[in-house]
Predict the 3D structure of the following.
Amino acid sequence: MIYVSLIEIFVKAKDSLVIEFGEKPGYWFTVLGFFAGIALIGVIDKLIPSGENPHEINKTKDYDNPGKKDKSKLMRMGLFSALAIGIHNFPEGLATFMAGMTNPTLGVSIAVAIAIHNIPEGLAISAPVYYATGNKKKAFVLSFLSGLAEPIGAIIGFFLLKWFFTEAAFGFIFSAVAGIMVYISLDELLPTAEEYGEHHIAIYGLIAGMAIMALSLVMMV
């Protein structure tokens, strides 16, 4: 996602904004849009309490012995996690949609990456809800509903682009999406990879992912 955001999406955003506003102003608007995307997802992170924030790694959660937990507290944790993850998933769905518009192969790659990181997020919702209620169906439904925020983001993106699609709109949205994807990669994907492995293995995986993405893009030229 980092490679694609900086090498493909940012450049395409710049090209569109340069066509619309000229070389220097177009470049400035691209940079501003990029950091506006980072600011947007950063504000969302800031507004969500760290205990329910899916980007905050918490090693202290223990669901093995539900007798030690107050059930209402567990249910609250699950509900807040569902809300927090749903809020985060919305711009992720928009980012995937925009990437898919640029290049369907690229969109599939990003969709797979986001789907993988959604697995622990789903567990963060379903585990506390299940231990609070003993109801597998309710735990599944809440996890499923939080995940629906991504296709909703894509659908809204489609209708917005349908009515307001110009070179300027394309450029601004793409630059913001690039910023959102870089933030998600650095704030969520990389720390999660390090949490479940070793630092250097995570970095090697990051570089390997960049190389694979670069190779796939070069082969399509």
